[in-house]
């Protein structure tokens, strides 16, 4: 239930999230081909998305009796290895989870990702640009995402703290929560990418928009602001904000995960995406937990050159492979329809790409995220998604090493630049 990517233009105007035109229809189009069974890989391995996707497949099949699905839920972190291997084989899935950006660009080189430009021209407007490579469309998003802090209102009240607006406020909040015997921030360090959220957000706060865009375009971190981002991470780690043994904690799997810690009231905050309510729901028996959880944007960093209202985010989508039947593209468009988009919004798995479905968002936190995105001057796509696959993985590894005390403020810069040049 995680993330996204945008190609060369890694700065996506946040307003496009809710204002982009959407031409998806409420009902599936006429069946474009004869009897087929499509293999569908998605990352909805837990509820509510697992059942929701099965229902979407069943509904589409009911309207298109000749189109059946072999639905295969796959745990999110497995996609990094399974998709590249599948695209090298003679039997890739027809339809698979896609986050766009540098990863998509890497996958397109296999020659097995379907060019859907002619069938989707104009659909979703700017929101779909993150799934383009060289001006051609190779997939479509079904939700967009924004990252911020989820927090337990009851634990904040117990510690006598309020929502922090600045980095100094956050540090003070961490100290007061510790003093009250409460774990300040939960993090799923085992999965690495949650660590990268912190480095990336500090980069967004320290670096101007032009510097961010230039770095993604050139795949090089050469602005001094990235050194400051590393220093910010080191300073945050020095406040002891996370749970014990956080390096071995998974992000989303089980009640002992960082998501489970927030759901169960074992920690006060977690920096995660808007999808988190749906992730937390099956991890607690407390049916009222959703009312106890709030959301706030990443605090401002004094002296940072970036716009302090900018966001970090991305989106989830799907791509068809060249072995897929024409029905695959029609199904992608069906996922942008108001009917499906309302179901996704109500389930809390992301922010709808169809603006007509935004009112169906059920989480107060998700609604707050949408409002913040509307006000944001721009949204920076996660760096590990915006960069080519190998470079993004190097960034995640370096961020995880930094959190493990094995690097310094320059480590992420070195890792990205070395990966981009092949170690030269």
TrEMBL record:
The keyword Ribonucleoprotein belongs to this UniProt entry's keyword annotation: no
PROSITE patterns: PROKAR_LIPOPROTEIN
Secretion signal span: 1-20
Keyword RNA-binding part of the UniProt annotation: no
Record keywords: Signal
Coiled-coil intervals, chain numbering: none
Gene3D superfamilies in the cross-refs: Periplasmic binding protein-like II
SUPFAM superfamilies: Periplasmic binding protein-like II (SSF53850)
Protein name: Extracellular solute-binding protein
